[in-house]
Design brief:
The chain is an alpha+beta fold. It folds into two domains: 2-43 and 357-397, no CATH class; 72-353, 2-Layer Sandwich (Alpha-D-Glucose-1,6-Bisphosphate, Chain A, domain 4). Helices cover 37% and strands 24% of the residues. The protein has 13 helices and 14 strands. Strands 1, 2, 3, 4, 5, 6, 7, 8, 9, 10, 11, 12, 13 and 14 form a 14-stranded mixed sheet that branches. Strand 7 and strand 8 form a beta hairpin. Helix 2 (17-43) crosses helix 12 and helix 12 runs antiparallel to helix 13 (383-397). It is globular and about 85 Å long. The protein starts with a helix and ends in a 5-residue tail after the last helix. The model is unreliable at 43-69, 74-84 and 366-402 (pLDDT under 50).
Length: 402
Amino acid sequence: MSALLDLLMGVFRQPTLGGVALELASLAAPLWLAVLVGLLIGWAWRPRWALAVVGDTPPETPALPPPPSCRNNEPAAVAPRAVMAAAAPKEEDEGLAVGTGDLMHLRRLVEEKDGGPSWIHMMEKTLPTMRYQAWRRDPQDGPPQYRSSTIFEDASPEVVRDFFWDDEFRIKNTWDDMLLQHEMLEECTKTGTMVLRWVRKFPFFCSDREYIIGRRIWASGKTYYCVTKGVPRPSVPRRNKPRRVDLYYSSWCIRPVESRNGDGSMTACEVLLFHHEDMGIPWEIAKLGVRQGMWGCVKRIEPGLRAYQIAKTAGEPLSKYAAMAHVNTKVDPDELITEDDKTGTSSTNNAEAEKPKHWTGNIHKALLIGGAVALACTFDRGLLTKAVIFGTARRFAGPGRR
């Protein structure tokens, strides 16, 4: 404290007002720099030692042998345009990366009967041929979860299904400019189940992320339940860069809806998306980033879809990913009716409006981080520096800090 007082007294001993202002500016500059450094610390990856301390490292589970109808590391043959597998028996389901339980979970999410917290309305946007709404909820023991409804005019569910499944077109068209690499690790030509490896781009101060994901589609009439989730594959070695994301869930329900032109035609298509993942970024910072960047990402989808429609109309052949979207499991709508539907159990997930937060609510956090780094950089370059910086990292490494 005495050192800080000596600095301030030295400032006010300057003979001129300009000298005082110059000295104050030189004193404040490290503090502002410290705040920026603190923000970068918040965006940085959780260190490995923190994961070990809190026991957050996911256990490696033994890889399950794929069913006889599935192949590893072989190119997928282009499937016929209308291939439906009957509902797979549970015995076959057990060997697949995505099973019937995942279908029922997605269906409960669609019907808002999964028993989770209430959804908070975040955003509503409208374009001439697209409508978009988004919600968020915060479970007690997991990352923020997002739900969105996107309605495309003049689009069939089949084309929209292929569009979201087609990783080759994602990169070719760059509508999903975060996807850097994709690789099909496993495929099941009987059910359409796939295991893929993705590498996605993150900001320059973060490592890129690696995902090992399982995919599968169920068809119920003109409605498609498309499940994508992270799956364990110890056979794919982990690396420091890109950093692997284990907790990942991103699934769609794609279905026809009435067009807004008012003639009652079912020429529009709704995509209900449910998404959450643990990227290793503190959840409050991740929520801020999602909120700021959500619409910028979403509005790129619609031009990409229209380009995809034009390409398919022109006769462009199916990619191996889009071909696998045509191999899906047919399910009778009656099989999706649960006991909750029969008893008329109401949903507990009624949406509520998001409460606006005043910008001053996060000042104390920025000051805490920036001040800690400022003290570490200003008064001590030894043990105090290390203690403060690692203490700040430990503070943000703890899971569930919200």
